[in-house]
Design goal:
By secondary structure, this protein is mainly alpha-helical. It has eight helices and no strands.
Length: 210
């Protein structure tokens, strides 16, 4: 039995590998989840990704550890939202939406509305680039596509965000105009009433003058 346990144990070098992985990327993973998940779940989700990395250490590409971790984090987060709890990720789905606007930590409602108008893939591309600082080969690795495809996806997502942003600004402008119109109408009614009062008050004065 001891021989079997020793055979199943990883070589000593893997311990140093994991320590380096944790030291280098645990904070980035924590930030990833802090922007996308409830605060109470962030530590558990981070630990789940790191645990998955340890179990699948043979699959983690040397030199591209962080993109691999981000990709795994996307699947873990999507699964967590479906199950309402963190669960092991032995089999990952083909696609993922880890940037649902309803869950994003955003204070600006216009930004939330613009992102909500985009497809899940466009949102994911934009936030991986803007929030997590991924671009080029790293972004391609997370998305599971080639470098040229990642650059094109980012360009398209930016263009669609500009269109969505312009649309939300237009809606905001229409709402503001409607409010101003209502205020003008109320103001006009108030002035008309004032005019009536002024007419009533000047009548007696004119009579007295005469």
């Amino acid at each position: 039995m001891p021989d079997a346990q020793q055979a199943a144990a990883p070589p000593p070098g893997w311990d140093a590998w994991f320590e380096d992985l944790f030291r280098s990327h645990a904070t980035a993973l924590h930030r990833y989840f802090a922007r996308r998940a409830p605060a109470d779940d962030v530590q558990d989700l981070t630990a789940e990704v790191l645990t998955t990395a340890w179990r699948r250490r043979d699959d983690v590409p040397a030199g591209a550890e962080l993109p691999w971790l981000y990709r795994t984090a996307g699947y873990v987060l999507a699964n967590h939202r479906r199950k309402a709890r963190a669960v092991p990720m032995e089999v990952v789905p083909d696609d993922v939406d880890d940037a649902d606007p309803a869950h994003l930590v955003l204070a600006d409602e216009q930004v939330r509305a613009a992102l909500g108008a985009l497809s899940p893939r466009d949102r994911r591309v934009l936030l991986l680039h803007a929030w997590d600082g991924l671009g080029g080969a790293d972004l391609a690795e997370v998305l599971g596509i080639g470098r040229g495809g990642a650059d094109a996806a980012l360009s398209r997502a930016r263009a669609r965000l500009r269109e969505a942003w312009a649309a939300t600004e237009g809606q905001g402008g229409q709402g503001a105009q409607g409010e101003r119109g209502g205020q003008s109408g109320q103001s006009g009614q108030g002035h008309a009433g004032d005019g009536g009062h002024r007419g009533a008050s000047t009548g007696p004065t004119a009579t007295q003058t005469r």
